[in-house]
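anyone seen this seq b4? input:
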Amino acid sequence: MSKTILITGATDGIGLEAAKLLANEGHRVLVHGRSAAKLEGAVKAIGGDTQAYLADISRTADVQRLSDEVIADHQKLDVLINNAGVLKAPQTVTADGLDLRFMVNAIAPYMLTKRLLSLIPRNGRIINLSSAAQAPVDLTALKGCIEMDDMDAYAQSKLAITMWSYYLAGKLADGPSVLAVNPGSLLASKMVKEGFGIAGNDLAIGAIILRRAAVDPDFSNVSGRYFDNDAGAFGNPHPDATDPEKVSAVMQAIEAAISQLLNT
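predicted toks r here
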């Protein structure tokens, strides 16, 4: 049965490759990106029943507009894949004073997910891109108060999205499912090339696991779990991701950051 699937950050990398796989199977793929030119190219490359959405999710207004447009265009969203991510950038502080990595990799996906929940059925799926790189979250850094090393910011933001995956899964006991996925380390994405100066591993490794997580029956009852594609199996994220007190502290900080963003 054809599904409607939104993939953020799908104009290149594993997001684009996963979109191609899903469109080729007949699913309606909603492709998000922040470059109009790259979106146009992605839609042509993906083919099938594809719809483009332009937004810079480092900006609160764009996250709101993206969700509003998806809600206006669709009565149901079967799968949301929060794939967009950033490691390095010329400017790592957003216009609102937050670290770009925390905003794009963790806070904006949470905002978007909460705003789209009304479209996602109980048997729907929310798939969050985690990473093998996970580091304890500095709450002061999450609030945007200190300068950060690129890799440290990235690793903290990836633990943050893993933590909110665990939290939201607990809140949505009747569904939809919330799954955090490490799609594979050092895949041949623009991020890896810029961050590590290496070609990286085959993008298909990550694309295939995102496709499986989105539509395969064996991923239908996995809410609150973590899939480590380096091991090819469900596993354990950083211990903080399932520590109720630490999860609660991070969620309070994320909710406070969103409240401030929406009121400025």
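The radius of gyration is 17 Å. The CA atoms of residues 101 and 153 lie 6 Å apart. kinda curious what u guys think
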